[in-house]
Structures are given as C-alpha cells and as structure tokens.
Amino acid sequence: MTKALFLAHTAAPSGAELATLRLLSALRELGRAEVTAIFTEDGPMVERMRARGIETCVQRSGFDSRAMTIGSGPVRLLAGFLALLRLGWAIGATAKRLHAEVLVAESSKALVMGAVAARRAGIPLVWQVHDRIAVDYFGRVPALVLQTLGRLIARGYIANSKTTLATLRTGRRPAIVAYPGVELHADTAAHRADQRVPEETVVAVVGRLSPWKGQDVLLRAAAAATVRPHRILLIGGTFFDEEPYRAELEQLARDLALPVTFTGHVDDPNPHLHDADILVHCSVLPEPFGQVVVEGMHAGCAVIAAGPGGPAEIVEHGVSGLLVDGGDERQLTDALDTLIADRALRTRLSAAGRSRAEHFDIGASAHTVADFLDTLTRRTGAVGHQNPDERTPRVERNPHV
To answer: Is-above-0.85 flag for pTM?
Structure first.
C-alpha cells in the first residue's frame, strides 16, 4: 500500500481542496493507500481533513502565497518563487520523516514547493492538475511556464478531466484522468420534491462569485426569459478580493427586479439544491471539470451547463441536461425558456441526471488514483528518481465513466 503525501498551498475550502478531501477520504476508506495531507497554512481544510480521520500536517512559514498572483510584478514573483523553494525544502524534511513514497502537488504553487521537497525526500512528484493550464485562464507566458515546469519536474500527472489533460505537455510521462468525483448518498431522491409549475420554478447557481463563473450572464438571461424564475439562488461566497463583483451582482439584481437570494459561502449546498428545480452552470471560460454539475444532477435538478470544457464530458445534451455555449446570454435564455415551460421535460432530465451522476462516484476515481500511484512508485523504485526518457503509459482514464 503506497504511502502518499498530498501537498496543498492553501487551507481555504475552494473546489480543488474539497475535491482533494473527498479523494483522500475515499482512498482511506478503501484501504488502497496510506494518505497524509500537508498544508502550508492553517485553515478550515485542516480541521475538515482531521475530522475525517486523515493524518494532516501544517508546515507553517512567514510567506503568504496568496500575495503571489499572476498579476504580480517580476520582483514580487521572483521573491515569492524563492520563498516557495525554501518552504519546499522544509516540506522535504517532513516527507522524509513521514516515510512518504510519493508526493502529490495539488496546485501550481504546490508544484514548485513539491519539486524541492520531492528531491530532498528522494521520492517521485506527481502533479494533480485541477485547472486548465491555458492562455485564456492564466495568460500566455504563465501558461507556458507552468506547462514547461510540469514537463521538467513532474514524474506523473493526474488530471481532473480530459479537457484539463489536453492543456498539459506530458510528453512520455504517465498521465491519467481521474474525475474529482462526488460522494453519492442513496437517500437523495427521498428529499426531492416534484418539479414545480413554471410560475414557481426555483433556479440555483453554485460556485464562488467570480466574473469568470458568469453569474451576471445568468441574471441577464433570466431577466429576458418568457417566464421569469420565481426565485434565483446564488450559492457561494467570494474569495481573492472578488467582493466588488458581489456588489455588482446585487445591483444588477435590483436593476432587473429579479428575486435573487445570495446565500454566501455554505459548507454543504445540498439543502439548497434539493429545493431547486434547475441548476445552471454558466461559466464564461471552459470549466476544467464542473463538479457542481454532478452535484446538481445527483440532487435531482434539471441541469443547464456551459461548454466547452468539463461539463460536456458530464452532460449528454437533451438526455441528462442541456448544454449551451459559455457566455451566450441568448442561448441561456432559450434553455431557461425550454425548461421552465416544460415541467415534464425537467422531470425526465432530472431522472436521467441522477442516473448519470452515479458514474462519478468518488470511489471509482479513488481506485484509479490508487492504481496509478502504486504503478508509479513501483516503476521509480524506493528512491523515486525516474529516468525522464523511460517510456511509460501516457494516458489512462477512469474506466467507470
């Protein structure tokens, strides 16, 4: 059983960190890997990991990695990069003490730290990629730097979708697709009321309030609908100085006279999803995966999702949901008109969506990841220095999806 150390640069409860929590929980429950999480700051995710019985360490430092962003100047970026390297050296000592056999980096910053940590500990480094490493998200130069860095230092890749994998330059490094997966609960259907009549329809959007998530697109599309939703739930908080966007959304809702409820951050969106008839995913940039789409389907919502990107790997248009082009208000209005007016269609899509969501059980992804880590550690040996030119299987995918 492989001893794996998962490294995260933040303990804030955002999508990637929650996906990691579910994966580590599943790996532990399956008994397929001995897992430890290590964070470089204290925060909510530390307690959540420990609450599930996952061994969790905090490698504290005086460096705030959140100050190192894509828009930082060259001096700040260089200083931040050097700070990450120093922190990585300390993490390497922890990895040796824990007798870790593989280090899994959960972000681009974790990748930089992990390069130093893995070399000090003499173990392979795997990059678990939660974001599309693409120009439209990171910018041309940062995307190229990250792609190159991954190619140079990662000994393997775990991508959260085929969409994400396509943005990486893996070369001959082993790479798999392991969907983030959701924790499925058998009693979900018991909490689901029947779809409402058109005039009482409730629409929900789940995700942090951020311009690229497109909540403003949804509000304008809903305002143009033939029958407006009875209620609109914007479920999610703000991070990384995006509070002004929430203020813009609040003003837009008033200007359009829409019945919008801002829930703020919630630990568990399921009670809201069980109350909604339609889940709308409306990102204006291609989503790496779109786990909220699976969560909405599992909760029994009829789903509208924006493509291209990960949601197109989840939703079969017209069968388990509707797909629209990201950022296209007209298409989104048309989709809302179609679903709000047709209660029977919503009922059919929600039933098919629940069935489709079962293909994304986190247990299946945990098996895929465990097999990958076992194979990688066997190939690299105890000290983990894999020959960069060694041929390895390039891509596997979750066979359960």
So the answer is: yes
